[in-house]
Specification:
The protein is α/β, with parallel strands linked by helices and about 375 residues long. It folds into two domains: about 180 residues, Alpha-Beta Complex (Quinone Oxidoreductase, Chain A, domain 1); about 150 residues, 3-Layer(aba) Sandwich (Rossmann fold). It contains eleven helices and 18 strands. Strands 3, 5, 6, 9, 10, 17 and 18 form a seven-stranded mixed β-sheet that branches. Strands 13-12-11-14-15-16 form a six-stranded parallel β-sheet, sandwiched between helices. The chain has a three-stranded antiparallel β-sheet with strand order 2-1-4, with no helix packed on it.
Length: about 375
C-alpha cells in the first residue's frame, strides 16, 4: 500500500513538472522582499549555486529584526529587489566549495553577516564591519536566511558547538556580539556605572550581560516596556527605568548622586522598536553621562541629534560609535555562552515557521504579546 502511494506521488510530481516545467528538486521556499510597505512574499526560487570559496547552508533558524519590518527603510540601502531578508541565521552545511578548507558537509554552523573587501585598512585590522565597501548578507550582498538554503562565503562561517541550539546560534554575532563589542568600545571596567537605553531589547540585554562580565558596578536599564525591563533585571541590571513614566535622565542622576553614569549606551535608536524617535534617546544618553564620561551609540537612525560642543573641550567627554563584532572576539563569546555567563535563550520570546513570517513581523511591529526576539524556524 505504501509503495502504491509513493508511486502515485512520484507520478503526480512528474506530471506537474512536465506541465509547469518546474524542477522541484532545485527549488526552495523563501520569503522575499519586493517593495517598502508590502508583506514579504513566500515563493519557490532556485537553490543558490555556490562558488569555489562558498558554502551552502541549510538554514535551521533565522532571527527577525525591526529593520526587516516592510514599512521600515533599510540601512544600508538595498542594491536590488527582490531580496531574501535575514542576516541572523544558523544551520547545517549542505555543500562545500572546492577551494574551502576546514568545513565539511553536515557541520553545524552560524554566520557573520558582514562582508568586507578584505583589502582596506579596516579589514586588515580585523574591523571588516567598518569597511567602506561593506555589504550585509540578507540585505545588499545577497540573499539571506529567510529561506531553506543560503549561499555564504566560507570566511563568514563559524562552527556551532553542539551544546548551543540553532535558535541561539542564529543570534551569536547579532545581538550578542554587537553588545559584547559595544562594551569593549565603551571600556567598561570593574566598578563602572552604566546606563543602557533600550536596555530591555536584544542588543540592550546583551550589553548588560557583557558589562556584568567585565565587572560593571551599577547597571541601569532604560526602556518603555515593563516586560523588557523585567528581563533586563533578570540578566543583570541593578535598576530599571520606564521612560514612559519618568524622566530617565533625572532618575539616572538620582541613582548616581547627581553625577550621571560613567558610560551610557544607546541601543535603541531609529532602527529599534522605538522606531523613528531614536534621536531623543541619543540626547538622553549623553545627558545621563557624567562630567568627562563616555556615551556609546550602538543603534542606527535616519536623523540627526544635538550635542553641546563645549562638553568635548571642557570635559573631554567622549561620544563614540560601535558597530558589528570583530571575529577575533567570537572564541571568547562562545566560551562565555558555554559557561552560562552570557545567555541567549531568555531573550527569545517567540518562534514561528517560515510561512508565518509576515504574522511574526506584524507582532514585532505592534509589540503584542510581550515580544522580544523572534526566531523563524526553517
Amino acid at each position: 500500500m505504501v509503495n502504491l502511494i509513493f508511486s502515485f506521488l512520484q507520478q503526480s510530481i512528474l506530471k506537474l513538472q512536465e506541465k509547469w516545467k518546474v524542477d522541484f528538486m532545485s527549488k526552495m521556499k523563501s520569503a522575499r522582499f519586493y517593495r517598502q510597505g508590502e508583506p514579504l512574499r513566500i515563493e519557490y526560487v532556485e537553490i543558490p549555486k555556490i562558488g569555489p570559496s562558498d558554502v551552502l547552508i541549510q538554514v535551521k533558524a533565522c532571527g527577525l529584526t525591526p529593520s526587516m519590518i516592510p514599512s521600515r527603510k533599510m540601512i544600508p540601502p538595498l542594491k536590488k529587489v527582490p531580496v531574501t531578508y535575514g542576516h541572523q541565521f544558523s544551520g547545517i552545511i549542505a555543500e562545500v566549495g572546492e577551494a574551502v578548507e576546514g568545513f565539511r558537509k553536515g557541520d553545524r554552523v552560524f554566520i557573520d553577516y558582514y562582508v568586507g573587501c578584505n583589502k582596506c585598512p579596516a579589514c586588515l585590522s580585523g574591523r571588516h564591519y567598518s569597511c567602506s565597501k561593506f555589504s550585509v548578507i540578507g540585505k545588499n550582498w545577497g540573499d539571506g536566511g529567510l529561506a531553506e538554503f543560503v549561499r555564504v562565503p566560507a570566511t563568514n562561517v563559524f562552527i556551532l558547538p553542539d551544546a548551543i541550539s540553532f535558535e541561539e546560534g542564529a543570534l551569536i554575532f547579532d545581538p550578542i556580539g554587537v553588545g559584547f563589542h559595544a562594551v569593549r568600545r565603551g571600556n567598561v571596567k570593574g566598578g563602572s556605572t552604566v546606563a543602557v537605553y533600550g536596555g530591555g531589547g536584544a542588543v540592550g540585554t546583551s550589553i548588560i550581560q557583557a558589562a556584568k562580565v567585565d565587572g560593571a558596578g551599577l547597571i541601569i536599564a532604560v526602556d518603555t516596556y515593563d516586560h523588557r525591563l523585567d528581563l533586563a533585571r533578570k540578566l543583570g541590571a541593578d535598576e530599571t527605568v520606564n521612560s514612559k513614566n519618568v524622566n530617565p535622565v533625572k532618575k539616572i542622576k538620582d541613582l548616581t548622586d547627581e553625577k550621571g553614569v560613567d558610560i551610557a549606551f544607546d541601543a535603541c535608536g531609529g532602527m529599534g522598536i522605538a522606531g523613528e524617535i531614536g534621536n531623543v534617546t541619543y540626547e538622553q544618553a549623553m545627558a545621563s553621562t557624567r562630567f568627562g564620561g563616555r556615551t556609546v551609540i550602538v543603534s542606527t537612525s535616519w536623523g540627526t541629534f544635538k550635542c553641546d560642543p563645549l562638553r568635548f573641550a571642557l570635559e573631554e567627554f567622549e561620544l563614540i560609535g560601535s558597530h558589528g563584532c570583530p571575529r577575533a572576539d567570537i572564541s571568547t563569546i562562545l566560551k562565555l555562552l558555554l559557561q552560562g555567563k552570557i545567555q541567549i535563550k531568555p531573550i527569545i520570546s517567540h518562534t514561528f515557521s517560515l510561512d508565518e513570517v509576515n504574522y511574526a513581523l506584524d507582532i514585532l511591529k505592534r509589540q503584542t504579546g510581550e515580544v522580544n526576539k523572534i526566531i523563524i524556524k526553517i
